[in-house]
TrEMBL record:
NCBIfam families: rocF_arginase. Homotrimer. This is Arginase. It comes from Danionella cerebrum. It is an enzyme of class 3 (hydrolase). GO terms for biological process: arginine metabolic process; urea cycle. Binds 2 manganese ions per subunit. Its cofactor is Mn(2+). GO terms for molecular function: arginase activity; manganese ion binding.
Amino acid sequence: MALRGPLSRLVSSTLRSCLQTRSHSVAIVGAPFSKGQKRRGVEHGPKAIRDAGLVERLSNLDYPVHDFGDLTFKHLEKDEHFMHVPFPRTVGRANQLLSGAVSGAVGAGHTCLMLGGDHSLAIGSVEGHSQQCPDLCLIWVDAHADINTPLTSPSGNLHGQSVSFLLKDLQNKMPQVPGFSWMKPFLSARDLVYIGLRDVDPGEHVILKTMGIQYFSMRDIDRMGIQRVMEVTLDHLLARKQRPIHLSFDIDAFDPSLAPATGTPVNGGLLSVMDVVEVNPTLGASPEAVEATTSLAVDVIASALGQTREGAHVAFPKITEPKEDTELRL
């Protein structure tokens, strides 16, 4: 199943090339990390996605693929709760390491694909991206807003607070969380769009409304259609100027109607970094269920990087012609 919608044709026909010319190579960075939430197993996501044929699929799209393997994360023995936030220093250190890896990949001219891991990793992924592209914009495809602060979060889990670490607009609402002194907020609320929200906490709802953040719930998508949602999203983010896009995609909350949201084409130089997170192979009820989820992750990635419904094909410079002495034999 190749996931691709009319958005791809829409974007390619209406957007000019990004001001920064990007190469057609893809760098894969694995982040097997799960301490941003309490459920184990999501650390196996990068391997499961690779085992589903990711590298082969991207190679068939005619991109040079550089797989840099998985980062190695250290889990601190002593990492006391901050308020009711578990593992703050471990999560902070992991994101600092990931930030450097993403920054290096983007700085080398690659489109970076970050495989998680839980969604707390987006803190480091987006921050590392911003080191190379400070004018980036962020599309967050998820059922959850992940914009709680330690003061509003019902669970304390940092995978539900990722965006709050990024936003300058929330700087005076965020306490100093241990483990995150290395980073400063850099993203404006106007540079963020949510797609697919359907489970927003009360505190998050207040933040979204107060900050005037653009978002589309599943109800909005049902009413408007995903193509119109993406038109409005890209107009909101790119009307002032074309700039790199960071797409952060929570596959655990996937809805089939969101497939075209991955259709921002890399060949225009716009999709610069993509996160695919929350793939947890231990939650599958059967091997077939696990395979379905990991295959879906590969489909989403291939769609974002340019695969059409017709599929990937080997590149031919021209139509092959028969030689003059070639005879047609029955």
